[in-house]
Design a protein that fits this description.
This protein is an all-alpha fold. The chain has 2 domains: 44 residues; 112 residues, no CATH class. The protein has 6 helices and 2 strands, in the order E-E-H-H-H-H-H-H. Strands 1-2 form a two-stranded antiparallel sheet. Helix 3 runs antiparallel to helix 4. The longest helix has 23 residues. The protein is globular and about 60 Å long. It starts with 13 loop residues before the first strand and ends in a 13-residue tail after the last helix. The C terminus is likely disordered.
């Protein structure tokens, strides 16, 4: 039996009984579209093929980084890059040339790490009101906390739980995280005996 034909357009393509491509509507800024069209023309691809190619490259790069660093480190690095951009935009200085910029980045990196550790272990915090206004006039720790949340790694918030339930949640989440790390073969904890110390 051949592929189904829709009311309009080309017949859907199938490989091993599955559709290989499906429609996706995307809105693009004019400049981005022009850049993609130029790249597509140079590569001899259609615009949709060029977009698919770029997305596949992006996903392959992500998978490569996850394979090298582990699933747990990749989002931290992504968040730190975004945090550094925000901090340097606030201070208008580079982190390696200005003490205030370096101090904010150092504090934010620590907060991102702390929050992500809580996310992995499902170590929930009770909700507390937080001002997300970013200003260099605020205490540095408050700015770091706000930036960490703004780049997507705020602390996990949940309802108050009794200690036994809270510890059981953490133990279960950590067991799942250990299993996930073991199955990814990233960053082994033991060093091969043949490797020189």
């Amino acid at each position: 039996m051949g592929p189904k034909t829709t009311a309009r357009g080309r017949p859907a393509k199938f490989e091993k009984g599955e559709r290989t491509r499906g429609p996706l509507t995307v809105r693009l800024r004019d400049r981005v579209r022009e850049d993609l069209e130029k790249s597509a023309a140079m590569a001899g691809r259609s615009l949709s093929e060029e977009m698919e190619h770029r997305i596949e490259l992006s996903l392959a790069q992500r998978d490569q980084f996850i394979g090298l660093w582990g699933w747990d480190i990749y989002p931290i690095f992504q968040s730190l890059a975004s945090a550094l951009w925000r901090i340097e935009s606030m201070t208008t200085k580079r982190w390696w040339e200005d003490e205030q910029t370096w101090d904010l980045f150092r504090r934010t990196a620590a907060k991102v790490g702390e929050n992500y550790r809580r996310i992995i272990s499902q170590d929930l915090l009770e909700f507390k009101p937080q001002s997300w206004r970013l200003s260099l006039d605020q205490p540095p720790d408050e700015v770091a906390e706000a930036i960490a949340a703004a780049v997507g790694i705020g602390p996990p918030i949940g309802p108050k739980e009794d200690k036994t339930k809270h510890e059981a949640r953490k133990a279960h989440a950590l067991a799942e995280a250990r299993a996930r790390m073991a199955s990814s073969n990233a960053r082994p904890l033991t060093v091969d005996d043949e490797v020189e110390q």
